[in-house]
Design a protein that fits this description.
heterodimer, A: alpha/beta, seven-stranded mixed sheet, two-stranded parallel sheet, 13 helices, globular, B: 13 helices
């Protein structure tokens, strides 16, 4: 009787152990991979909510073989610092600005060339044709990207109205730290750019170190620049994007089945965020205007002059090591096609 | 009984009635009772305000009650928006009655607004606080919209002015709000975690550690933002080990304990 009871208890213990083992497996299957990913998006933001949901789906569909751990709020530093941490294996990926990854693949600088696009329709046309190619070449360069998220067009923001190049020439115009192409473009336009990190712009506008900055409506509100500027110039200065990317070797260590799941799920999330971004900027623009920021229309002849000046810079840009020259040519061809079809009224 | 009593008192001492009401709620240790009971109080406050619409103290108390209920107990996001919109209206009216220039503050640009705040004096601090808290609760309830993001600097400026007038107002509550606001954005997007930390530390000091929700917010907002797990877990364990009873804080402390448990449970996963 006692032996029977002892056996029973041992049996119970064995059962308990088995259950624990199963639970342990569920938590971390043998060979499970945790991908560590950094982003400046704050925890709780829409972006993080969507990406965490995608990570949950990945974990579920890979039965816990692949989990993603996020480091939100820029706690791992800026794009360059995140890239360094990826190089030493401390991180496996991140959400970057497209320009932030351009040091790895120069094609990512193309869409952000100042005054390149005239409308979001042009952007859509070019992106439909070139996004996939950008991602393929980025992958050759060692990063697996899961699509781009629109940051939108930046507009000039200023404390006095800017309607002509002359208005701009007398001003101290911000250029982001590390953005050599914008710096070059401004110099070519005869402006005096002031190089500052984005985080110093608010103070710069407040103290008079800067007169003019530029940002998308969403960025302007988040960075609270609307408290320091009075005018927004209705001219798409440059187009910005974000990209979610993983270091290619880390990605390739996953089974091909898990790679496919990751691609599908993350791409879905990124595509959704990309679509939402446009409505976000449209709404943010309305709010910006209703908060008292006045729209300024730029003189059309002037814009053509600005564009012509910057186009004169293209050969120099094309030969830079951080610009994919051949893809730049294709982009310009696509734009020419689009504009020609627009002029003949056929698109 | 209560209703009759308060209605009778209202004409003489509407603000005292509202304060008593607030105390009865804030000293409560049963959030579910508050959730189910407060709507009746809100109706009562609405009634008092309808009859004494020119009493800034009553309006200020109303703004805070609606802000509290709307942001912590509303059953749906839509209800939260409606209730906090009322909080905001009452707060704005309270300040307009106490400090006439504030009646025309709508649409002021940021610099002009900050300048105008300088004319609000110490005697109007209750109305200014109610104005800021009602507005903040409404922004929180509507945070999906960009207007909320756009208006935050204005609310922050109003709270900074309250702090300037009396740093220890409501035992550090204002420092707590500012700590949260400074930690909303990461440094890369203009946030200032070091300022957030300073405000939270000071808030806890001024409340003598009795306001547990300050520690929860310090952990949730600051420690998570800067990825300081040690601080996060320490703060939350302190909350779990502390007594909830404190005059005017019991309700929030009970809620704080609930939240501390939730945050601790996800600590390992987050960090």
């Amino acid at each position: 009787m006692r032996r029977a009871k002892a056996l029973l208890e041992r049996g119970r213990n064995v059962a308990l152990l088995a259950v624990l083992a199963v639970l342990a497996c569920a938590a971390a299957p043998v060979g499970a991979v945790e991908l560590k990913v950094a982003t400046i998006a704050p925890d709780g933001s829409h972006w993080m909510q969507r990406m965490r949901a995608a990570a949950d789906t990945v974990a579920e569909r890979t039965s816990g073989r692949v989990t993603i751990k996020f480091y939100p709020g820029g706690v791992m530093g800026n794009d360059a610092q995140v890239l360094r941490k990826i190089r030493v294996g401390q991180l496996q990926g991140g959400a970057f600005t497209a320009g932030g990854l351009a040091s790895r693949y120069g094609g990512l600088n193309l869409y952000g060339i100042p005054l390149l696009f005239r409308s979001l329709d042009e952007v859509d046309y070019v992106r439909r044709e070139l996004d996939e190619e950008l991602l393929a070449r980025l992958e050759d360069a060692g990063f697996v990207g899961f699509g781009f998220v629109e940051g939108g067009f930046a507009n000039l923001l200023s404390s006095e109205p800017i309607a002509t190049v002359e208005d701009l020439r007398r001003k101290k115009v911000w250029v982001p730290d590390g953005d050599e192409i914008s710096f070059l473009a401004m110099q070519t336009l005869g402006l005096s750019p002031v190089v500052l990190p984005v985080t110093d712009v608010l103070t710069g506008l407040q103290t008079g170190l800067l007169d003019v900055s530029f940002a998308s409506p969403v960025a302007a509100l988040v960075l609270q620049w609307h408290t320091r500027v009075k005018y927004i110039t209705e001219l798409p200065v440059s187009y910005s994007m974000g990209i979610f990317a993983l270091e290619a070797n880390a990605f390739r260590r996953l089974s091909s089945e898990d790679q496919a799941i990751l691609r599908e799920v993350i791409t879905d999330a990124v595509t959704e965020l990309d679509r939402a971004a446009r409505a976000d900027n449209a709404r943010a623009r309305e709010v910006l205007l209703s908060s008292g920021v006045q729209p300024v229309h730029v003189n059309a002849a002037d814009v053509e002059e600005w564009r012509a000046t910057i186009e004169g810079l293209y050969p120099q840009l094309r030969s830079r090591p951080d610009v994919d020259g051949p893809l730049f040519d294709r982009l310009l061809e696509l734009l020419a096609q689009y504009r020609a079809s627009g002029e003949s009224g056929s698109h | 009984m209560c209703l009759v009593l308060l209605a009778g008192c209202a004409r003489l001492a509407g603000s005292i009635a509202a304060d008593t009401l607030s105390a009865a709620i804030l000293d409560q240790d049963d959030p579910e009772l508050v959730a189910s009971g407060v709507p009746a109080y809100l109706l009562l406050v609405d009634g008092l305000i309808a009859r004494n619409g020119d009493d800034p103290a009553l309006l200020a108390a109303g703004a805070q009650l609606f802000a509290l209920y709307g942001s912590r107990f509303a059953e749906t996001p839509e209800r939260a928006v409606a209730l906090t919109a009322k909080a905001r209206r009452y707060g704005a009216r309270a300040l307009c009655l106490a400090h006439e220039p504030a009646c025309d503050w709508d649409g002021l640009d940021y610099d002009a607004f900050v300048q105008a705040l300088q004319d609000v004096g110490r005697k109007d601090i209750d109305a200014l606080f109610a104005y800021a808290v009602g507005w903040l609760a409404h922004l929180d309830a509507t945070s999906e919209d960009w207007t909320a993001v756009a208006e935050l600097p204005w609310v922050q400026a109003a709270l900074e002015r309250v702090l300037e007038l009396d740093e220890s107002y409501r035992e550090g509550t204002v420092h707590g709000y500012l700590g949260t606001l400074y930690a909303l954005r990461p440094p890369a997007l203009g946030g200032r975690p070091e300022e957030a930390q300073r405000h939270f530390e000071r808030a806890i000091e001024l409340s003598h550690g009795r306001d547990l929700s300050l520690k929860v917010e310090y952990a949730r907002r600051y420690a998570r933002l800067v990825f300081d797990q040690e601080l996060h877990d320490r703060l939350l364990n302190e909350v779990l080990n502390a007594a909830v009873e404190a005059p005017g804080l019991t309700l929030f402390n009970v809620l704080a304990k609930q939240e501390a448990r939730g945050l601790l449970a996800t600590s390992k996963e987050y960090f």
